[in-house]
Amino acid sequence: MSSKKSVIICGGGIVGLSCAYYLARDGWSVTVVERNAEGADSCAQGSAGYISPSHVVPLAAPGMVWKGLKWMMSSRSPFYIKPRLNADLMRWGWLFARACTPEHTVRAAPVLRDLSVSGRKLFVELADLTGNAFELKKEGLLNLCKTQECLDHESHGLARLANELGVEAQVLDAKQTAALEPGARMDVAGSVYFPIDAHLSPRKFIPALIGLLQQLGVTFRWSTSVDGWRTEGGRVAAVHTTAGELTADEFVLAAGSWSPDMVKGLEIRLPLQAGKGYSLTIEKPRFQLTKSLILTERRVAATPMGDTLRFGGTMEISGINDRIRSERVQQIIDAVPHYFPDFTAADFAGIKPWYGLRPVTPDGLPYIGRFGRHPNLTAACGHAMLGVTMAPSTGLLVSEVLGGRKPSLSLEMLSPDRYA
Ligand SMILES: Cc1cc2nc3c(=O)[nH]c(=O)nc-3n(C[C@H](O)[C@H](O)[C@H](O)COP(=O)(O)OP(=O)(O)OC[C@H]3O[C@@H](n4cnc5c(N)ncnc54)[C@H](O)[C@@H]3O)c2cc1C
User: Which of 114, 254, 272, 330 is deepest in the core (most CB within 10 A)?
Assistant: First the structure.
């Protein structure tokens, strides 16, 4: 019998797979339980693929309550909460509103920065290890501003905060912006450039990571759902799955937007809402970008991935469902020609919109760490808009926690018990 300590990762999205990698590297016997088949879609696959230390402001930021209320009236707004009589949503909304303070931003921003900067460093290591199989590009990110008003707002707000936190941000005029993307005709007042940001092709990253996990001997239980737990003396003894009961020394909750449902049987309440976003990938774009971009006023992301160009965005808190709201997809399509006059709606004709459900916590910080109630269960979920960026740093932290080592970043604000 193996003397290795065993761990079961519940959920095989980018965060679960990253946890599996760092644990297997440390010598754990790792099993990943994923209800979908190998190669199926997950939230990261259609994402914008940003690795974004520049995203230092949490979603729960000052002014968001007012904006959220205003945007609630319009299903075309970038951030939309579908009004519903649902106790979990109401509690989440209340906790979200409570977090929208300047004090919370001051406390949360360095935590987001550290998780993201660490994530970027680890992606560079993974790129070296895989011969850059996932097209990591260290080109930076441009926040394009159509209007001078937006540029002034970004330079006094995000750019100033980022620079204060040591994340370099350069405010550029239209000419300087054009010089950084010479192949694209843009109609903008300027931009904020974050040289540290990077991007990758998520559809290439996931198979590359699975390849590394196979080399490390990780066991995969594809097409297997977690549907319950067995506890003994406060510890989790086993997880019930559609393929039978599985036992291990440790368990990791990495089920993205489904995490609260997964732990309901353990009487754990984890405030988290699914935030739906959409993307559209143009196979043969009119021109190609070199960097990832944000169309700031419209909150739309643009990322070059190989020869293709992906546009994505919107945050729709409407529960877990697979409904594609065409008016929200249209909002992405409508935004593009405002910044890139050479593009028209015809460029998007026939493209099937992709959607993903971001796991959104009320305070914009992920849940990482052990649960007090069941100390051999560790949370790795709730990364919202930064789950790609933070997947490797989360995996590393989880391996440090399970290995009994001092975490390389403080977990104080990330505790899954913070709303218990
Ligand atoms: C449009 C869009 C653009 C984005 N762009 C970026 C970006 O540029 N940069 C960035 O950092 N982040 C981005 N994100 C966010 C990022 O994609 C997510 O935060 C991240 O993918 C979440 O990963 P996860 O592993 O936590 O969740 P998921 O990918 O949702 O994985 C959870 C897994 O758990 C499985 N599961 C659920 N229930 C069960 C069960 N009962 N039993 C077994 N398995 C189960 C699911 O099948 C799923 O595979 C974007 C998201 C969207 C929607």
Answer: 254
- Tell me, using a 6 A CB cutoff, whether residue 35 lines ligand 1: yes
Which atom from ligand 1 is nearest to the alpha carbon of 202?
A: 17
Q: Ligand 1: does its nearest atom lie under 6 Å from the Cβ of 42?
A: yes
d(CA 380, CA 256): 8
Domains of the chain (ranges plus CATH)? Answer: 6-44+204-271+363-414 (3.50.50.60), 53-98+138-195+273-360 (3.30.9.10)
Tokens of 279: 């993307």
Nearest CA to 391 among 399, 383, 402, 400? 383
Per-residue pLDDT tens for 305-326? Answer: 999 999 999 999 999 999 999 9
Give the predicted TM-score (pTM) of the model: 0.97
Token pair of 313 as six digits = 């965005």
Ligand 1 neighbour 225 (Cβ under 6 A): yes
> Looking at residues 89-94, what average pLDDT do you find?
93
Amino acid occupying residue 32 = V
Question: What would the pLDDT profile of 263-276 be if each residue is shown by its tens digit?
Answer: 999 999 999 999 99
Q: What is the Cα 81 distance to its own chain's centre?
A: 19
pLDDT score of 407: 97
Crossing angle of helices 202-215 and 14-25, in 10° steps, is 30
Sequence-ordered list of residues with C-beta below 8 angstroms from that of 340, at least 6 positions apart, any chain: 184, 185, 186, 187
